[in-house]
Design goal:
2 domains; 2-enoyl-CoA Hydratase, Chain A, domain 1; 367 residues
Length: 367
């Protein structure tokens, strides 16, 4: 194993060190309050709500729990509990002490998390509202850009910026340039100015340049954010009154050269730098209608498979850097899998099936 200690992607809200997750009817709030002394590795502090991989592992987990455990949620508000700071992006000192491979994996995972927000907005009716209540720079603005809308507090100091080029001589690593021009339709001449100066853009100018959707004075900020969150929620087709599906910890065994889940096995041949991922079809009788799918809940084969495969991919990608080839195989009754595919297609608009399909889609994209 190339990086130690081993990075663990399984977590739950009781173990969060960086995010506060709360619920109020159809609105969930993800508040950034990053513990500067809880970096994933030694050598840096997460000051000014700067993040490392550990912060994004929690973010990914929180979004998945909203998707599955809280089907009543239709809008997620992303905001900050730090005074005058929303998020200052990836921690520079963390990047400075990290290997190239670590930085590649870090940027890849953060990209996937932000793409996942847009995926849920497009396919699952889950909308995201960035309530930017402080300085928002670099990866912090890229997180806001991944949301459906951005509301910026108009307090004469809070701003948005992508300072990577003028300050570091690198391009933003999490989709910032693409989302500024292609998603927010910022004029290219303004985008050039925005991305080549380290000063942030704030207030009316940020709105005029299409960098944010709305600016609100501090006295009205919280009220307006709640109003807009409810307005977005009213347009969602997420269910009302549906029972959520609890995401309990995966059953997994890790040995020196093996990972074992219920449906996914990984065998590592270090002499060949080869890992064989074997996906096993279910042996048990699968549900045949939506009622039995709901009854199966977290034990429904497609959901278990998606979670196990995602965890295996992330584990191998981060913790087994010397492995140069993955060989993916399947075992079991193909007819049973095809029958389950047909069942999912038939009920693809049911919220639980839809979320499971989304998790499968995002997991396969990690490859």
């Amino acid at each position: 194993m190339s990086e130690s200690p081993r990075v663990e992607y399984q977590t739950d809200p009781s173990a969060y060190r960086h995010w506060k997750l709360s619920f109020d009817g159809p609105v969930a709030t993800l508040a950034a309050d990053f513990d500067e002394n809880a970096g994933l590795r030694p050598g840096y502090k997460l000051k000014l709500n700067s993040y490392d991989l550990g912060v994004d592992i929690e973010l990914n987990d929180a979004i998945n729990r909203i998707r599955f455990e809280h089907p009543e949620v239709r809008t997620v508000v992303v905001t900050s509990l730090k005074d005058k700071v929303f998020c200052s992006g990836a921690n520079i000192f963390m990047l400075g002490v990290s290997s190239h491979a670590w930085k590649v994996n870090f940027c890849k995972f953060t990209n996937e998390t932000r793409n996942g927000l847009e995926d849920s907005s497009k396919y699952s009716g889950l909308k995201f509202l960035a309530a930017v209540n402080g300085a928002c720079a670099g990866g912090g603005y890229e997180l806001a850009l991944a949301c459906d809308e951005i509301v910026l507090i108009d307090d004469r100091s809070s701003s948005v910026s992508l300072p990577e080029v003028p300050l570091l001589g690198v391009l933003p690593g999490t989709g910032g340039l693409t989302r500024v021009t292609d998603k927010r339709k910022v004029r290219h001449d303004l985008a050039d100015i925005f991305c080549t100066t380290n000063e942030g853009v704030r207030g009316q100018k940020a709105k005029d340049w299409r960098l944010v959707d709305e600016i609100v004075k501090p006295a009205q900020f919280a009220t307006r954010v709640q109003e807009r969150a409810l307005e977005l929620a009213s347009k969602s087709d997420r269910p009302v009154g549906a029972k959520g599906v609890k995401l309990n910890p995966l059953m997994r065994n890790i040995d020196a050269d093996q990972l074992r889940y219920s449906h996914v096995h990984v065998d590592i041949d270090r002499s060949k730098r080869l890992a064989t991922l074997t996906v096993h079809a279910p042996k048990e009788t699968l549900p045949s209608d939506i009622a039995s799918i709901e009854a199966a809940g977290e034990q429904w084969y497609p959901l278990v498979l998606a979670r196990e495969l995602e965890d295996a991919i992330l584990h191998m990608r981060t913790n087994e850097l010397d492995i140069g080839m993955w060989l993916i195989k399947t075992r079991g009754d193909a007819a049973a899998v095809l029958a389950n595919d047909e069942l999912m297609h038939t009920h693809q608009h049911h919220w639980f099936v839809r979320e499971t399909l989304g998790l499968l889609r995002r997991t396969f994209s990690r490859l």
